[in-house]
Amino acid sequence: MALRAIRTYGDEILTMKSKPIKELKDRFKVLIDDMLDTMYDAGGVGLAAVQVGVLRRIVVIDISPEGDEPYVLINPEILETSGEQTGYEGCLSVPGKQGTVTRANYCKVKAFNRDMEEYIIEGEGLMARALQHEIDHLEGEVYVDKVEGELLDSAALAEMEDEDTEE
Ligand code: NI
User: How far is Cα 72 from Cα 166, in angstroms, rounded to an integer?
Assistant: First the structure.
């Protein structure tokens, strides 16, 4: 297990486009393992390779509560989107912040797994949001630029939600 340093917003690399993987060399397999370790350690549900400083089209996602359903997406491509959802979104590269982003509510993606076999992954709600958010990273886009209104402190947001539930 190895953790890699997460690049934060303002780092120029996060604005750069990632390159496709042609052959999954050993160093990329190590990278995928490290990305999963780094994502779980930081308590995130998704991570793109660029966030650990590697400009390659690799994404890991795990939205399961137990954190035991990791998806590895190599060279992911969005095939289809539909519907709309508006909700809070965060990013490991923008620690302690959240903002409101509108995204498609359904997303269907073609990608390669860690054995370089092509597969289809689709999801609604949070999964669709994670897919779109992570694939944006590969294009050099960070969600901050899509936020409607203000970027909020997660701590302040949690307090607001607590007040809501206390009533
Ligand atoms: Ni992110």
Answer: 39
Model pTM above 0.85? yes
What does the domain layout of the chain look like in residue ranges? 12-166
Q: Positive or negative, the Cα torsion across 36, 42, 48, 49? A: negative
pLDDT digits (tens, 9 = 90+) for 81-124: 999 999 999 999 999 999 999 999 999 999 999 999 999 999 99
Tell me, yes or no, if 161 is annotated catalytic: no
For 12-166, CATH number out of 3.30.70.1120, 1.10.1200.30, 3.90.550.10, 3.90.45.10 equals: 3.90.45.10
Tens of pLDDT, residue by residue over 124-133, are 999 999 999 9
Spacing, Cα 143 to ligand 1 middle (Å): 7
d(CA 112, CA 98): 30
